[in-house]
Structures are given as C-alpha cells and as structure tokens.
From TrEMBL:
Residues 134-168 form the Peptidase M50 domain. This is Putative zinc metalloprotease YwhC. The chain crosses the membrane at residues 58-78, 90-118, 138-157, 178-196. Belongs to the peptidase M50B family. It comes from Alteripontixanthobacter maritimus. Its main location: membrane. It is found in: Cell membrane.
C-alpha cells in the first residue's frame, strides 16, 4: 500500500503540472495570434484549480495507475475561438501544436534536472534523493506520453486540429463533423485501453514512440551526468 501511495504522490503532481502547462500554452499562443478568449476567461493562470477536471485530471489517471495501465488524463479545455484568430486555419494548427510542444519542453527540463541528479554520484543515494529520481523519471515519461497521445488525429485531441488544418478545405469540413463525437471516441479509447490493452491504439501507436523518445531524454540526462 505504501508503494502504491508513493506512486500516486509522484504521478499526480507530475500530471497536474504537465496538463496545466499544456493548457496554458494553448491559451498564450491563441492570444499571440489574435484570440484573447482564454485571457478573458482567466485561463492563462498556472493555478491548477482553474484547469483541473476532477475526473480527467485525478480519477482517470489515478485509476489507471492503480491498474498498471498507461497514465494519461485531461484538464478543462482552454477556450479558443478559431474565428477570432488572425489566420484561423494556420492559427488553430499553431494553437493545437503548442500544448504537445510545451510538454516536450517540460520533459527536456526534467531530463536536465535528472542529469544533475545523476551527476551527484554517492550524494544521490539517500532514500529522499531516490524519490526525487523517480519523480523526475515519471515527470519525463508523463510529459512525453501526454505530448504524443494528444497528437493522435482523433477529436478532440490536438492532432485532430493539426490534421484538419492540413487537409483540403472540402475534406476538412467532413473531417470536422467527427468533432461532436469526440467524447464518445475518447471514452471508447479509454474502455479499449482497460479491456484489451494489447488491441488498443495506445499500445500500438503511442507507446513505441513514447519509449523511443524516453530513451532519447534519458541518454541526454546520462550525457549531462558524464555517464
């Protein structure tokens, strides 16, 4: 039980930081490109209370952690009005890409910090320092996973906005009609992950690049530590 509690205490703060920065990045890029909706709704704050969705940020990732499944979640989406963007087509793609890009940047920060930890040698062997190492490891993994998971071309994920912007307008209109079904698709994906993870989209299309990119970040950490 104590190990499970420690795992949750490491995962939840990492997930909250990853999700909050992800959402705020959407809002800031939208503001820079002409849409102040997120600012008007006071969603450019790093205060987690403004972004946390009790189910998506706490219940779902906590349950997945206890079940040993992939850890992912979501926050309350930052409001973006495509028509208010200076260039709606390009702007929406840039806003969507900002979230995953921020998570990859956070993972980079985590890798640099982990490299500093590894450089500590014998000074990094205490129990408290080991918890710090595990926390940084989970922080890197969660940010990588959140970035790549959100790039799936399934509404309402960021990848769907990027794909919609790349498609010819006539095709994009048909693709956009899937958006109202986004929650159904999301719940179906979660159910498939629980019931048959070996058949799921996550296992087949997300985890392989996540594990590859994780090693890239870990190699960077080891390089910083001189190992």
């Amino acid at each position: 039980m104590s190990e499970t509690l420690i795992l949750v205490l490491l995962l939840v703060p990492s997930l909250i930081v990853a999700i909050v920065f992800h959402e705020v990045a959407h809002g800031w890029v939208a503001l820079m490109l002409g849409d102040p909706t997120a600012k008007e709704r006071k969603r450019l704050s790093l205060n987690p209370i403004r972004h946390v969705d009790p189910v998506g940020t706490l219940v779902v990732p906590g349950a997945l952690a206890l079940m040993g499944g992939p850890i992912f979640g979501w926050a309350k989406p930052v409001p973006v009005r495509q028509r208010r963007l200076n260039n709606p087509r390009f702007g929406m793609m840039a806003v969507a890409a900002a979230g995953p890009a921020t998570n990859l940047l956070l993972a980079l920060v985590g890798a640099v910090a982990l490299g500093g930890y590894l450089a500590g040698g014998p000074y990094a062997e205490g129990s408290a320092m080991v918890v710090l190492r595990d926390g940084l490891t989970y922080f890197i993994l969660i940010n990588i996973f959140l970035a790549l998971f959100n790039l799936l071309p399934i509404p309402p994920f960021d990848g769907s906005h990027i794909v919609e912007g790349l498609l010819p307008p006539s095709v994009a209109r048909h693709y956009g009609k899937l958006r109202p079904l986004g929650m159904v698709l999301l719940l179906g994906l979660i159910a498939l992950t629980w019931i048959a993870p070996e058949l799921g989209v996550v296992e087949r299309f997300v985890l392989p690049p996540v594990l590859w990119l994780q090693e890239v970040y870990f190699d960077l950490a080891r390089s910083i530590a001189g190992q």
